[in-house]
Amino acid sequence: MTARALPLLLLLSWALAGCGDHSMSQQNRYGTFSKAGLFKDGSEARALPQGVVAQGDLDRLQQISKPPAVDMALLSRGRERYDIYCSPCHGFSGQGDGMIVQRGFPAPPSYHSARLRSADAQHFFDVITHGYGAMYSYAARVEPRDRWAIVTYIRALQQSQRTDMADVPELRSKLP
Amino acid sequence: MPNEEMGSRAFPQPAGIHNRAVLLVVGGFLLFVGAAIAGMLLFLNTQAPRAFTPRAERRFPSPELQTSPEADLTRFEAAQRARLTAYAWVDRDHNIASIPIDEAMQLVVGRGYQAYDAPQPAPAPPSGASGGNP
């Protein structure tokens, strides 16, 4: 029995050894920034053909151009994204005193300054997209719809930290 | 194993060792160490009397190294979040106050698309600014 099984086992081990898939490590393609004789300009980096867009680009452009309707779900999403990406520098209340600033990073301006209270929503969206001053772009980390969500949450922060009594008459009874 | 097979391995050392010499070497070594320690103490007491006093704790100016970053962050975040959960006066003379963020979010949602608008108008440009350029 053992004598019969031995050749079978050997055959099986050889067969398994041949199963290695090297397609991921040995690909028939050009390396990044390498010369490419296949194309006239000799470069492997190719621009998209005319009339072609990358998957998801049209949706992204639409999200950029049209702010979403404001509801509690959008604001909650903005609050979550703000706490993750913005609060380390801007602080949870938007005063520009986050933990990174406590450790010596330049302080960003407060959202409650007159300049930023009068800034339009597009300004905040553009700063998240392109960066501003010491702040780098968050376009790769925050999707356009989430940028609008953060903008609405910034408006909520501005409301929270500076509410006119005339807007909320019942507020007086709750104040110390 | 019989003793005759073990031969000399049965005894770890020959019987003719000079115990006095060993004791002298060990005693001399201990004496040397003791004298060295006493000499060092004497030297430090006379030449550097402050060597044995504990150093005063030195605090570096902020931001200093954190001994417990997690506890610092937790305390810091709690203080920051407290601003978003309480009612407080900001400017009593102008009737401006801060309200909890949940309430502020409800107010913003109630505005619909107007929620994107700036809460206050842009400051007017300086009077001399208009018409400055030809």
Describe this structure in words.
The complex is a heterodimer of chains A (176) and B (134). Chain A is mostly helical and 176 residues long. Chain A has a domain of 105 residues: Cytochrome c-like domain (Cytochrome Bc1 Complex, Chain D, domain 2), CATH 1.10.760.10. Chain A is built from 7 helices and 1 strand. In chain A, α3 packs across α7 and α6 packs across α7. The radius of gyration of chain A is 28 Å and the shape is elongated. Chain B has 134 residues and is mostly helical. Chain B has a two-stranded antiparallel sheet with strand order 1-2. The longest helix of chain B has 29 residues. At the A-B interface, α3, α7 and β1 of A face α3, β1, β2 and α4 of B.
Give a short account of the largest sheet of chain B. Answer: 2 strands, antiparallel
Contiguous runs where pLDDT drops below 50 for at least 5 residues of chain B = 129-134
| Spatial order of the strands forming the largest sheet of chain B | 1-2
Percent of residues in helices of chain B: 40-55%
Shape of chain B: rod-shaped
CATH class of one domain in chain A: Mainly Alpha
Query: Gap between N and C termini of chain A, in Å?
Result: 91 Å
The counted number of beta strands of chain A is 1
Give the amount of beta strand of chain B, in percent: 5-15%
